[in-house]
Every structure is written in C-alpha cells, then in structure tokens.
Specification:
The complex is a heterodimer. Chain A is mainly α. Chain A is about 60% helix and about 0% strand. Chain A has a two-stranded parallel ribbon. Chain A is globular, with a radius of gyration of 22 Å. Chain B folds into 3 domains: about 100 residues, Translation factors (Elongation Factor Tu (Ef-tu), domain 3); about 110 residues, 3-Layer(aba) Sandwich (Rossmann fold); about 80 residues, Beta-grasp domain (Ubiquitin-like (UB roll)). Chain B is built from 9 helices and 18 strands. Classes of the chains: A mainly alpha, B alpha/beta. Chains A and B meet through helix 1, helix 2, helix 4 and helix 9 of A and helix 1, helix 2, strand 4 and strand 16 of B. The complex binds flavin-adenine dinucleotide (FAD) and FE2/S2 (inorganic) cluster. Chain A: This is Fatty acid desaturase. Chain A: Keywords: Membrane, Transmembrane, Transmembrane helix. Chain A: InterPro entries: FA_desaturase_dom, Fatty_acid_desaturase.
C-alpha cells in the first residue's frame, strides 16, 4: 500500500499487503451476498418510497394552495421540505447511482431518471459517480473535498482567502443545489481562460444547467404560486423555504460523509496502481457514518451509511444497514477506525474543521513515512475520534 | 382547430411544469397505471388453469393498445423477483373482444423463470407491461380454401387464436396436434368440441404412446398435405423437419412457421460483438470487457469510472449474452429486450448486438 496518510498516526501502518487484499476479498464476498438476495424486496421498497414521496409532494403542494392561512403554510412547507429531501436523497441520489438498474424498469433507471435539483442528472452523475466515488478523498482529484473553494487539509497551503471559508460554507449550505451545479460545471476551472470558456462541451453543459434552472424556478416560483392565487407570495415563500431546508439538510449530511475528524485524505500519488483491496481501504478510511434511527437513515438517503455506500455504491441503499454489521466487524477485525456518530456531533465536528482550517496551521503537519509506520499506536489510540 | 390545439398544448406545457422534473403521467401512474399513454400496461382480469402446467391470462390492455391479428403475439414485461423480464406470448383468444381484452396462454417450461412465475403467481388484478402485437404468423386476408395447422405442446396457442377468430371463414381446416398425453392437451376440450361440431378435422397425437410426429407420418394423416396452406408451431426440431419436408416438395411458400425459441443462448467464452448503429463488428475475448475490446478496435465508447460504479458506460444490448467479470453473473437479451449493459464490467459470452 502506497497510501501516504496525512495523519500523525498511520491508521493502516499495521496492515500487510496480504491483509489489504484479504479485506478486498471479504468485501467482495459481502457484495456477492447482497447480490444473491437483491430482488423483489428492493424493487418494492424503492417503488414505495417513490409513491410516498409523490403523494407527500402532491398533497403538500395542494395544502400550499391555501398558504395564505398560517397553519396551511406551516403544514405545507414542512411536507414539501420532507418531500424534496426524500426526492433528492433516498430516491434521486440512489437511483442515479444505478442502485435500481437491476430492475430493468425504464422508469427507475439511472440513465433515465431526472431529479428535483438544478443540476441535470447527467452532469451530476459525471462529477459524483465518476470522479468523487472513484477518487474519494484524493486531494486534487476529488473536488467534493471543499468543492475547490475550501481548505480541507492541514497540508494545503493557507491563504488569507480561507479566513472567510466558514462564510462560504454557510452560503454554500443555503444554496447547495446551485453550489453543486457550479461544481459539476467546474466553473472555477472552466471560467479561467477564454479557451476553456468557449469549449463547446462546457457551453452545452452551461446551457443544460440554464434550462434546468429555468424549469425549476418556473415551477417553484411562478407556476405553483400562480395556481394558489391569493396565496401567491406565501407559496413563493413556502417553496423557497422548502428548498433552503432541503439544501441545508443535504449539505449537512454530505459534509458528515467525508469531513469529520478521523477521516483520512490521500495524496494524488498514492493511488497509482491501486489494487482493488487498496481502493476498498481508501473508501473505508475516507468516509464517515452518521448513527441514528431508521427514519434518520431514510431521510439521509442512507448516506448515513456513507462507509457502506462508498464500498458498494451500486447496491440498493436500503441494504446498507444490514451490510453495516458485517462491515463494522471487518473494521474491528483489522483494527481500523470506523468513524461514526450522531448527526449533531458529526456536523459540529465537520464545522469545527472548516473553522480550524480557515486559520493557518498552529504547528507544521507531519507526514508519516509509509515505509516505517508507527505501529501499535493505532489500537491503543484510535484516530477515529468519533467525538 | 389550430386555436384549441395551441391552447391545449399550452395548457399541457403548464401541467408539465407543475410536475417537472418528472412527467405528469408519472403522477398518474400512482393511481391509474392503465391510463398512461406512454407506457402500455395490462391488468390481469382472470386466470384459468388449462392443464397442470398451463394457465390462460385474460388481459385488459390499457391506453395505447392496438388490436391484434389472429396468430400474432404480444410481449409481456413481467416483474419477477423485482426484475422486469420480457417474453413473447401468442394471443390465444378470439380477435375483436368488445372491450379489447386479449388472452395469452402460458405453458411453464422447465426452469422457465417467467413461465413458471406466471403459472404460480398470476392473479386477478396483477399489472403487467405490454408491447403492441407483432408477428407475421397470420392468415392472409384472402382466406385459403384448404388449411392445415400442425402444432405441438404450447404451439397450439397462436393457432387457437386463429381458429377462434376465423373458423367460420376456414371451410376445410385440419388440425394435427401433438401433446404428451390426452391430459396435456392445452385447449383439449375446445379442440374436441370444434371437431365434434364438424368445424375442423382434428388429429390428436399423444407422444408418450405414439412417439413424435415425423413429416413422413403427415403424408399418411393428411393425404392432400401440400395442397393446403399450412401453419406450424412447436419445438424447433419439429419445425426444422417440416421446413425441410415442404422445401423438398417444392412448396416451401405454403408453410408458415412460428418459433417460440428463436435463439438458444448458451454462455461461452467471448464472442462477436456488433455495434449496429456504427456498423462495427469486433471479436471480443472472454477475458476482456466489451468496453476495452470496443475501444481497442477504435470504437468511441461512452465510459466513466471503468470499474462498474458510475453507469456511464451502459449500452442497450438488443440481443446477446454477456458475463459480469466481477461475479460471473450472466445476462441475456433476446430480440426486442434492449437490456442495458455496463460494458466496463461485462465480457461477451456469445454473439452480442448493441443498439449503438
Ligand atoms: C413469437 C413467440 C411466441 C410465443 N408464444 C408463446 C405462447 O403462446 N405460450 C408459451 O407458453 N410460450 C410462448 N413463447 C415462449 C415464451 O416467450 C418463453 O420463451 C417461454 O415462456 C419460456 O420463458 P421462461 O422465462 O419461462 O424461460 P427461461 O427462464 O427464459 O428459460 C428457462 C429454460 O427453458 C428454455 N426455454 C426457453 N424458452 C423455451 C421454449 N419456448 N420452449 C422450451 N424451452 C425453452 C431455456 O433455454 C432455458 O433452459 C413464445 C415465444 C415466441 C418467440
Ligand atoms: S464506466 Fe463507470 S460503470 Fe462502467
């Protein structure tokens, strides 16, 4: 394993190459076990969630036709917020991962699905499935880390610009769907030079996002408000609120996935010639879970099982809970830090990191020499400070 | 009226905006699955057991259905263990049902995924997916004076559809039907009734005691064999033998056959992969993914992660057989299936045709 951990204690120093490959084999076996039983239950589950989501959305929007009355506003807004969260997380995200492609139902297929989000599904699938899931937590390759605008690691050079990163992060949380659209377009990189700006693929992508934004805005801020007649302004406010709630929620959940204390990041050079076992190991160490109730898992689209999701991105998310038991045992067997904690704790931990890294380092970070890792500390002093 | 049409279109566009990013009919599907004009479905209205192994499903097709011609088949999309599988079934009922209902008769084959599922689980109220009727195993508008139907096993189904629809227009019809035993004859009672009424001449052959029907037997059973316009449906070997027999007699055009099992897919190692739209054909070895093989041949292939997680590389397989290189699972597609296959983790396990 060539992974150079940017941590004081190398959490994998005690593993031999053979260990890593057997971790890979054990995880492959877990995947096969789920594949063997995947079927009717999973199909019925996603159809049910879609049905609940659509019914909730329709009825909330119906209630909002009367949003001029405060109780209707509150009930409708709450319902719509939940519906939008479900739509993005448990339904959209998971379908776009191809988790339900096995059903061969063109209505529920990753290549056909479009979601309630300003970024078109196709672009999101590129940046998320192709880049983030493949290059998880590799600095410079996985832009999910800080979305290119934040300092996410002690070893990243500090610049006064980063002082404001808690503010960027907050604004990004409020308008997360636009942040994701900008990020999927790689705006930062593509706006730099004239050549990049006029690249036909980029132009086409910008146009597609424009069309998507127009439809989304028309729907939430013109059509539905217009339908509600005298409640026009109240419905606008309700839809705006629901979008913000959904944005903040998904931002928080996603921040918990790779940001909390105890999660490792990786060097670009470390993934050259990576084996399957090493790829798995990077997913294990680069992700963090959120503990909580069943409802909590559903509302996070099972991204609360971020570790399991990163190991098996295309298995139906509703299977993660049962897989997690075995995955956790594997972590224990190989003495690896399984980072998890309740949502508030993880969110706080992630925010603390954002704030801490907005300032220059107190002491220079020390990279661990992979050739001579500090061995047994890991067991005695786990890096997984799940606070 | 152009004005009302414009208004209608405008109103529809507003409705589409109400439901964007999904289409309005997706919401309709929640309450009325048969009303969707873009997705043809049918509700099972009744299930009749024909033999131990065969059931007839009475289907009420939803919006978008077009009537069939006797002898044609429909493709049913049935969700078996959560996976939509498409299979062809001949219409066995008479054409022209007042409410547009049709029946199909499914004979469970050994280890047959869909046919056994339908035999065991088809219930009133079940919704299946449907394709428009297709097939040219039909009786021409100008009805033949003398006709012959040679069927075996479930091959009787399209013929039953023809007889039920057209019997009064077929003045001299002979039916030669083979089944293992008298009890195994699907539609046995109907056929015998037609014979008793003198509408057909029925030759029943029970292969358990009489052995399989050979073309030579036909010369005896039906002396004016080659004068008859003939429709045959049954196992492949039987149809092959018939085709040869008619060709030898120089009257190949008199014989119309329907095969229930056009291609037998057996998983092998590697195969010829055809990208139909681009007109490229390549040899794809068993140990190489179709993505790699395609690219190696200069084909521009869509791809992303190249490790099976992003689904950017999926292509519709019209027909063929592939093996998942990770776990060895085999996926097959027959004509019309268009199964979406991840090329980055699939190797050819036989000839494959991609709609790409
Ligand atoms: C034009 C057309 C019309 C058809 N009409 C009818 C009909 O009216 N009634 C009907 O019952 N079937 C009909 N079939 C056959 C039907 O489409 C399916 O092939 C059949 O039901 C088996 O599907 P399965 O999923 O149960 O079997 P699978 O799970 O696909 O196959 C299981 C095993 O059975 C073998 N097998 C597959 N098909 C057949 C077959 N037809 N006969 C024998 N063995 C087979 C396979 O090689 C495999 O070993 C028709 C097929 C065609 C092409
Ligand atoms: S290229 Fe990503 S799944 Fe095939």
């Amino acid at each position: 394993m060539t992974t150079l951990q940017r941590q004081e204690v190398n959490p994998i120093g005690h593993l031999t190459a053979e260990d890593i490959e057997s971790i890979g084999r054990e995880l492959d076996a877990m995947r096969d076990e789920v594949l063997a039983v995947r079927g009717e239950r999973d199909a019925a589950y996603i159809r049910k969630v879609i049905k609940v989501q659509r019914s909730l959305e329709m009825s909330s929007r119906a209630v909002l036709l009367f949003s001029i009355f405060p109780p209707a506003w509150i009930v409708g807004t709450a319902g719509l917020s939940v519906a939008k969260i479900l739509e993005n997380m448990e339904v959209g995200h998971n379908i776009l991962h191809g988790q339900y492609d096995f059903m061969r139902d063109p209505k529920i297929h990753s290549t056909k699905w479009e979601w309630d989000h300003v970024t078109p599904a196709a672009q999101w699938k590129h940046s998320h499935n192709e880049l983030h899931h493949k290059y998880t937590n590799v600095i410079g390759k996985d832009n999910d880390l800080g979305y290119g605008i934040m300092r996410v690691d002690e070893n990243q050079k500090w610049h006064p610009f980063f002082l404001a990163q808690p503010l960027w992060n907050f604004i990004n949380a409020l308008f997360f769907e636009y942040g994701i659209a900008a990020y999927d377009l790689e705006l930062g990189r593509n706006l730099k030079s004239k050549k990049k700006r006029s690249n036909p693929e980029f132009v086409a992508n910008v146009k597609a996002v424009g069309r998507k934004i127009r439809r989304q805005v028309l729907k939430d801020y013109i059509i539905h408000p217009a339908l509600s007649g005298p409640s026009f302004l109240h419905t606008i406010a309700a839809n705006f609120t629901a979008n913000i709630v959904r944005n903040v929620w998904s931002h928080s959940v996603i921040m918990c996935g790779h940001f909390p204390n105890g999660v490792s990041t990786f060097e670009r050079s470390s993934i050259k010639g990576e084996t399957r076992g090493e790829w798995y190991l990077r997913q294990m160490l680069g992700s963090a879970n959120i503990s909580g109730s069943k409802l909590m898992h559903i509302m996070t689209g099972n991204l609360s099982h971020q570790i399991e999701h990163h190991l098996f991105p295309d298995l139906p998310a509703s299977r993660y809970a049962e897989v997690a038991v075995k995955v956790r045992a594997l972590f224990e067997k190989y003495d690896l830090p399984y980072v998890t904690g309740p949502l508030p704790v993880q969110v706080a931990s992630a925010w603390a990191k954002v704030i801490r890294l907005s300032f220059p380092n107190r002491k220079p970070a020390r990279a661990v020499d992979p050739a001579r890792p500090p061995r047994p500390q890991v067991a005695a002093e786990p890096v997984s400070v799940s606070v | 009226m152009p004005v009302t049409k414009t208004l209608r279109n405008g109103a529809w566009r507003v409705v589409e905006l109400i439901t964007t990013p999904v289409v309005p009919t997706d919401y309709l599907d929640v309450i009325a699955p048969l009303r969707n004009p873009h997705v043809l479905r049918a509700r099972v209205e009744a299930v009749h057991r024909e033999t131990d192994n065969a059931v007839t499903l009475e289907l009420r097709p939803g919006r978008g259905w077009l009537p069939h011609q006797p002898g044609q088949y429909v493709r049913l999309g049935v969700d078996v263990d959560g996976i939509r599988l498409w299979r062809a079934y001949s219409v066995s009922s008479a054409a022209g049902h007042p409410a547009g209902w049709i029946s199909v008769t499914v004979n469970a084959v050994r280890d047959g995924v869909v046919s056994s599922y339908l035999r065991d689980n088809a219930r009133k109220g079940m919704v299946v997916h449907l394709d428009l009727p297709a097939g040219d195993f039909v009786v021409p508008r100008e009805r033949p004076a003398k006709s012959l139907f040679i069927t075996a096993g479930s091959g009787i189904t399209p013929v039953m559809g023809m007889l039920r629809s057209l019997i009064h227009e077929l003045s001299d019809a002979v039916v030669v039907h083979s089944a293992r035993t008298p009890e195994d004859v699907v539609f046995g009672a109907d056929l015998r009734a037609l014979a008793e009424q003198g509408k057909i001449r029925l030759v029943e052959r029970h292969t358990a005691t009489d052995g399989r029907l050979k073309p030579a037997d036909l010369d005896e059973l039906v002396p004016d064999l080659f004068e008859r316009e003939t429709w045959a449906c049954g196992p492949g070997e039987m149809l092959d033998a018939m085709t040869e027999h008619w060709a030898e007699a120089g009257v190949a055009e008199r014989l119309h056959v329907e095969r229930f099992r056009p291609t037998v897919l057996v998983a092998g190692e590697g195969g010829t992969v055809t990208f139909e739209k681009s007109g490229t054909t390549i040899e794809s070895p068993g140990g190489v993914t179709i993505l790699d093989a395609g690219e190696a041949s200069g084909q521009l292939m869509p791809s992303g992660c190249r490790m099976g997680i992003c689904y950017k590389c999926v292509l519709p397989m019209r027909e063929g057989i592939v093996r998942d290189v990770r776990d060895g699972q085999v996926t097959t597609a027959v004509e019309g299936d268009n199964v979406l296959v991840q090329t980055c983790i699939s190797a050819a396990a036989g000839p494959c045709h991609f709609d790409f």
